[in-house]
Task: structure prediction
Amino acid sequence: MTSEAIEAPATAKTAVPVDTTSISAHQRRKLDRSPRSQIVVTAILVVVAVYFLVPLYWVVIAATKTTGALFSTNGFWFGGEFALFSNLQQVFSYDGGIFVRWIANSILYSGVGAVLATYFAAAGGYALAKYEFRGRQLVFGTILGGVLVPGTATALPLFLLFSTMGLTDTYWSVLIPSLVSPFGLFLCRVYAAASVDTALLEQARIDGAGELRIFHTVVLRQMTPALVTVCLFQVVGIWNNFFLPLIMLADQKLYPITLGLNNWRAQVDRLPEFYQLTTGGVLVSVIPLVIAIIVLQRFWRGGLTEGSVKG
Amino acid sequence: MTATQPGSGFRTSTKATSAQKRAPWILLAPFLALFVLTFIIPIISALFQSFTTVDREGLFGEDGVTGRFAGFDNYVTALNDAGFVGSIWRMLLFGIVQVPVMIVLCTILALLLESASARWPGFFRAVYFMPYGVPGVIATILWSFLYVPGLSPIVSLLQSMGLQPDFLGANSVLWSIANIVTWTYTGYNMLIIVAQLKSIPGEVYEAAKMDGANAFQVAWRIQIPLIAPALVLTTVFSIIGTLQLFAEPQILSTVAPAIDTEYTPNYAAYTNAFAFNEYGVASAQAVIIALAAFILSFAFLALTNRPPKDDRDRRARAKRDGLEARRALQGRAPARPVVTTQAAPGLQTAPGLQNGTKGADA
Result:
């Protein structure tokens, strides 16, 4: 009990994005490392890094080859004609540029979905953290249960429900389920309870601000670190989702990039030139994701989830 | 404790206005409406569907379909389906091997990255985390190319060393899937653990050093116990993720004949629903998957939330002491029994007494 009380403010502190390499404990301990253990540890880290990089390295190489060279030359090094640009040109022009459409769809689904989902989760999480009202525990408990429900378990009945509403095979069928993030609401509630200053809320009330206005002007600003994290989680979640669009969408024009590339890959057995379309498409779609992940890495704050198991 | 809820005293003293009473519901409304639409209604309708069976008139149901209550028939069908039951056992085997391997791997990586001996920890952290941004579908496409003989440089490398690797065979493909899942999620779980490691105050390490602890003792006795909550969290999410496995086997099935349409529970439900139009059985399977996720997650949480033994003993002692103290109090002040019973039940008195016994022990 006492440990929770101590940890709550700490959660708020760790959630502020800081350059994590500048932690002083680490620096201090750096002073007493032995050269031998440094070599051993770094060697292990390098080997593991090779494992994580191999598939991406392979696709960079593969995207530069012609279909023939793909099978006849060493996969770990360039070989044959350098065909990267003709491959990429094919990727972008095939079927009237449907690849660009898939990318645009993915950006639409994950962009709109994540921003709105974060806003709704913030409003709900703040309400559950800072207001006393009847049914609060019931509402929170029900939503918490939603965190544990596998997404694919609801996808099937959701498809049946949407098909009676005539929503399947539309943008809405993928967008609407993307707007709800029980885990996001849970994070927002934890964060709002620890970091939104109640005295400031009372001050705003005394100044005559309405409750919604307080939320939009005072609360959202204080919750920004949590909002960034929730939003990024949701972007990745929607971008990577496969099952939901797979069952909801039939029209290729509505596909997100994951579904589209899988569609190309499924045709390689019949038409070998799809190898080049698939590897080129994978390369183009992965590069921005990898850059985004590395740049935004510090925002994936595990610190936000610290208290979650105890709650 | 007062810092987290300083306003509660204030709010009880002034009566909440009607606007303040309405506000939480207005704020919750959009989330709740969508939550009901995409969680509550589908779950209820899945439950409903799982107890219904559809009778088709005519050969293809062209003369109309009627639903009727079927009791547990769909569950019996689902659980008598050897393919579906086999897929559950397969996922259990998968989970028992893959989840611990991944958790151990990401813990070791986190400890190494946070150790004094690691060079360029920021670079390695970014490299390990990167696969999390690669969608599971694309990761599977990439690895499937690395599994297929003729295309894969890994296979040809092993062949040149005289080995005959078969990544897509009946016995090995499950572990090829495990490799894809591990590749995708290890870095993400590692980041959660790194964040927890960073929250350990430096003084703890200083104290351990003064006591002469070496790096292994620090990791085993100090860091691992302190990151236990993060380990629990990542394990629970990994269990849920394992039960949902779908994209990886579905995509690999085109290159691995060993993967049938009931390879994972989710795949079986998908096949029943969209290939056979057996919505009732598919819903029963979805309910079984969700129940399994609940049961496994709660079992794991219950297992790990047990306080350590000496802590339990202390709590039991505190409770006994508390009962004695209460009895003594009641004996002394019989005029105010209501107040005593209100204050005494539950654990409210326990923390104070616990501190008391702790002091006595020391």
